[in-house]
UniProtKB/TrEMBL annotation:
Name under which the protein is recorded: Myb/SANT-like domain-containing protein
Domain (Myb/SANT-like): residue spans on this chain: 1-91
Polar residues biased stretches: 146-156
UniProt-annotated stretches for the region Disordered: 130-163
């Protein structure tokens, strides 16, 4: 049933046939019909929404791991691959990552479709925090990292200077990334803007879904640079079956 659902989602995703908070009505109708025809099962719009939330949860948890060093995707077993138990333990011991605990050996089929369809839904996800929220968190981190034995008579000027030199943490990077994505998405929706602009996160997720490309950093980055500023080429890539995408990309970036 998942394959029948996701086939419809990918088809209408490629047509940009989505509403602000979900799919347009005719997409649900097409999904119900496809599941009935392919699986002999009658489902409702509520069933589709419920399953879609599950796909969205898979995406939000898995993509956080895939952008972390030491993680990859096993296309043969349809699950996360991890370089070592130590990498997994370090990741899962962070409180914000504990919802991924059950994904160590969890099979998630059709990741290529899920990562394509659901990547655009996360521009306002858990990392899209407000600047004030990030500032408060950085201040708290700065205080917690101070050595209690240090000289407390440091001047206020030095203290102010230290507060200005915060390191960017994961939240800050994700916040800036999502703001950039939202800005580019706004430009994309404006017909007066350059139609060649492609949201960077959408390109990233699409490339991560291509088997064997993820392991070749140079080819991955070349493909990212090639697609991010060429909307027609990106749309051409999406129109190809998954088995031809890597060959097509390498043909173009090696010209």
């Amino acid at each position: 049933m998942d394959e029948a659902l996701l086939t419809i989602f990918v088809e209408f995703y490629n047509k940009s046939d989505r509403a602000q908070n979900g799919w347009k009505p005719h997409v649900y109708t097409a999904a119900v019909k496809n599941v009935r025809d392919k699986c002999g099962v009658d489902i409702t719009k509520d069933n589709i929404i419920s399953r879609s939330k599950t796909f969205d949860k898979h995406y939000s948890i898995i993509i956080k791991m895939l952008v972390t060093s030491g993680f990859g995707w096993d296309w043969t077993r349809n699950r996360i691959s991890v370089d070592s138990d130590a990498v997994w333990d370090d990741y899962i011991n962070v409180k914000k990552n504990q919802d991924a605990a059950c994904y160590r050996y969890k099979v998630v089929k059709f990741w290529d479709s899920i990562s394509l369809v659901y990547c655009k839904d996360h521009a306002t996800g858990e990392f899209a925090r407000t600047p004030s929220e990030n500032a408060k968190e950085m201040d708290a981190e700065d205080l917690s990292n101070k050595d209690p034995s240090s000289n407390t008579s440091i001047s206020s000027d030095v203290g102010d200077d230290r507060r200005k030199r915060h390191r960017m943490n994961d939240h800050d990077i994700a916040f800036l990334r999502d703001k950039l994505y939202s800005f580019v998405a706004t430009l994309k929706d404006d017909s007066s803007q350059d139609p060649k602009i492609v949201p960077p996160e959408e390109v990233f997720a699409t490339l991560k879904a291509i088997p064997d490309l993820d392991g070749d950093d140079d080819a991955f980055l070349d493909a990212f640079d090639f697609l991010i500023s060429d909307g027609p080429k990106f749309n051409a890539l999406l129109a190809l079956p998954m088995g031809l995408r890597k060959k097509w990309l390498l043909k173009h970036i090696n010209k």
